[in-house]
Amino acid sequence: MGRMTQSPRKRPTSFDVAHLAGVSQSTVSRALAGSPSITEATRNRVMAAAAELDYLVDERAARLRRGTTSTLAVVVLRRPEDTVRSANPFYQELLYSVCEAAATRQLDTLVSLQSDDGDLSGRYVEQGQADGLVVIGSPTNVRAWEYFHELEADTSYDSPDTIGHAAYWGTPHEDMRWVRADNATGGRLAVRHLTDAGYRSIAYAGSDGNVQQQFRERHEGYLAEMADRGLAPRMIAVDQDSSREDQGRAAADAVLAAGDVDAMFVACDRMALGVLDRLSGLGTNVPGDIGVVGFDGMGAGRFSNPPLSTIEPDLAAAGKMLVDAAIDGVAQADGVRVPVRYVARSSVRSE
Amino acid sequence: MGRMTQSPRKRPTSFDVAHLAGVSQSTVSRALAGSPSITEATRNRVMAAAAELDYLVDERAARLRRGTTSTLAVVVLRRPEDTVRSANPFYQELLYSVCEAAATRQLDTLVSLQSDDGDLSGRYVEQGQADGLVVIGSPTNVRAWEYFHELEADTSYDSPDTIGHAAYWGTPHEDMRWVRADNATGGRLAVRHLTDAGYRSIAYAGSDGNVQQQFRERHEGYLAEMADRGLAPRMIAVDQDSSREDQGRAAADAVLAAGDVDAMFVACDRMALGVLDRLSGLGTNVPGDIGVVGFDGMGAGRFSNPPLSTIEPDLAAAGKMLVDAAIDGVAQADGVRVPVRYVARSSVRSE
Questions:
Q1: Which member of B38, B114, B127 has the closest CB to residue A36?
Q2: Weakly modelled stretches of chain B, pLDDT under 70
Q3: How far is B57 from B50, CA to CA, in rounded Å?
Q4: CB distance from B112 to chain A under 8 Å?
Q5: Is A321 part of any domain?
Q6: B206 in Cβ contact with B271 (< 8 Å)
Q7: Taking a contact as any Cβ pair under 8 Å apart, which residues of chain B between 210 and 269 contact chain A?
Q8: What residue in A sits closest to B104 (Cα-Cα)?
Q9: Which residues contact B140 (CB under 8 A, 6 or more apart)?
Q10: Cα dihedral value A50, A55, A56, A60, nearest 10
Q11: What would the pLDDT profile of A162-189 be if each residue is shown by its tens digit?
């Protein structure tokens, strides 16, 4: 009932705690911060007074005593040249999904944007700042992935509790705990829906993925499904040095120049939006003359001309898989696959 | 040179530190965690051994001693019904922009997604978890904003250092430190570019903003510029209960039914994308018959049919303004405005 004697809006201060405990305010501060210069007896008296007054205890000190952080560390690898407007929105959505999955588990997320050319850091769990680590990036962040690969291989940790509490999106290293879209199934689904709609000369636009193994896997799924259906594969290789949209525009030009392609499975939505932009600009009938399927489920595909059929990874599942693997820990570095689905829009004829 | 006697990949453990300091491993743990049961002399011996071995000190304990967190707390208010795919991408971009501005200042961000119907918390600075607080939400998160409003009004803090270290995007309370797009200028810019392109009967589609004061300000800018040019304003009010896209579709229907409107300034891009979707579906010539300008600078507008002219707030500036206000602190609750610019695309005739 002690706290009812003051206004409910007036919060107790460390001076109130000091007065009740019979010590100075600086002793209260040091005692609650866990300073070694304060004796156990004094600290206990201060803690009792703080509890009596419902005084807000420093959360860091409290967590330090509890031995848990209630925090997930999330590192987002970015390219130094990216701006918030030019960056791939997929990574922003994935970051949001991870924060959401963490919130469901009552975890805050300690987010750090890092670049290949900057100082890299990932020892959040060992340093006691987080209970697990999620790293999100593109395989093109080569130096950063090497850093995290070495960090994970560096098993001379003080405690086995810090091993395995990490999960990675976009790593090119197969022996790390990766979470990745079911790219091969996506490639198969694209071919399946295009052939069911009557298309036969279906080209893959993208790369076969020396760096982007996500693209390689999509291409492999495409190849497997084409083979199963007795169809001849076609590769429209794109120039890796231009923007995704410009890669798509160039792929559209190549398809029109070839003259005998009636559908395109495009490695990612940003590239597919460039394809649609060029085809609509040239008056090509999509889906009548050419059908187009992308990959990613980007929001912009709902409003493109025409709206873009796409393979959509389950982003909510992706966030949950990353958080669960990082927090619950994993015994070994097996990867896990995020399910994908085909989203039918009007860039493909009705089946 | 001591550390060169072991492999560079083998990191020292707390047992190595204990051995060198001549104490038990548990003493090392407690000493480094700042436990009050360890004497100052023992702690100094352990710290010297840890430094000698380049042992990784618990970062929380180190920060506790330093008295700074190198962390910015970011609360994102969400609607419980939102999914990562359905949520307004603007907030995901703004979150990313805040993380980026924080990274520029060598700060990590402690991100917490919170809902109106969940437990709200914002005492990160007082609890020693962060040096400042940024809250991002929509004015429709009514209960959450009331919580943060009371939190800010609760000035009986222990230390004046914790006052003013917060900044807010989307608060409906004018006496909080808000950061907001220069909405009125945006409304004026839209009218200016539409009239320069020859449109005269320009309607505003949206609400006049009892809840969404960002919309009210955009409407006020529209009204002021229309008045300056001697043009009669028109309001196409939207039904607040449907999705933004459907609000836009309904606004397009209303404009076609009216028959004498030749341009629309639409309160936000998602609504404007719904307008374009309906108009292109009905074969209306945009920009020939009707010109359309949105507001937000959403990426999807680059690929819509036709690409959407829009008022784009400078998102990088928004993130920097929020971070600077929260970290540097502010003496009073003045708001600050994020600059906007007109992005010309083909939903408006050439001027």
A1: B38
A2: 1-11, 33-36, 56-67, 154-163, 208-211, 330-333
A3: 8
A4: yes
A5: no
A6: yes
A7: none
A8: A113
A9: B79, B211, B212
A10: -10
A11: 557 899 999 988 888 899 999 999 999 9
**pLDDT confidence bin for A1, thresholds 50/70/90:** very low
Minimum distance, in Å, between the CA of residue A230 and any CA atom of chain B: 35
Which residues 27-46 of A are in CB contact (within 8 Å) with B? Answer: 31, 33-40, 43
Q: Do B109 and A114 touch (CB under 8 A)?
A: no
A53-67, A295-309, B141-155: the lowest-pLDDT one: A53-67
CB atoms within 10 A of CB A154: 13
pLDDT, tens digit (0-9, with 9 covering 90-100), for B205-247: 998 666 678 899 999 999 999 999 999 999 998 887 888 999 9
CB pairs under 8 A between A and B: 204
The pLDDT value given to residue B64 = 53
- Which structural domain range is residue A30 located in? 2-66
Residue B320, in any domain of the structure: no
Query: Do A297 and A188 fall within a single domain?
Result: yes
Among residues A137, A152, A179, the one where a domain terminates is A179
Q: Given a cut of 50, is residue A7 above it in pLDDT?
A: no
Confidence check: pLDDT of A42 > 80: yes
Taking CB atoms and an 8 Å limit, are B110 and A110 in contact across chains? yes
Which residue, among A129, A303, A308, A346, would best test binding to B if mutated, counting the most B CBs under 10 Å from its CB? A303
User: Tell me, what CATH number does A308's domain have?
Assistant: 3.40.50.2300
Q: Please tell me if residue A117 touches chain B, with a CB cutoff of 8 Å.
A: no
Contact A299 B85 (CB under 8 A): yes
Share of chain B above pLDDT 90, in %: 54
Sign (positive or negative) of CA dihedral B39, B42, B48, B53: negative
DSSP conformation class of A178: B
- The answer to whether residues A15 and A86 belong to one domain is no
- For residue B63, list chain A residues with Cβ-Cβ distance below 8 A: 60
How high is the ipTM of this complex?
A: 0.76
User: Residues with Cβ < 8 Å from A37, sequence gap 6 or more?
Assistant: A30, B40
DSSP character at residue A330: -
